[in-house]
Design goal:
It is built from seven helices and three strands, in the order αααβααββαα. It is mainly α. The chain has one domain.
Amino acid sequence: MSLNVPAALLEQAEHDDIGCEDFVACVQDSLPYAWTVISTVVADLHAADAPHAEHALPPPSETHRGQLLRALASDAIRTSLEQYFGVQLAFQNCHRIAAFTTTEAGRAAYRQFTTPRAQILNQTPQLRDC
């Protein structure tokens, strides 16, 4: 299961749309490691006043890695986090997370980060099983 959905949120979803804030709160509670990594890289992005920032530390366990994968592989979760933080997110190798501004420089950095060349250059034998 990806998310621990409170009964009230499930009931609301059964009858109507739910807001971004409510969904993001559910993600934050359900995937605390992923939330910490993503919110930290977003904070780093804003502090650096740069078009992008990265987090490249491998997770401490497979459980933590699973949280990152669930958060970033789910279109609904990733899109909601991007909307909430006002950034574009990308990831490589199951743990290298990057946040990009929505400026032209940020979009250019995103396009570079997500190329096949960038993916190949980011490979190492240590990351083969991630």
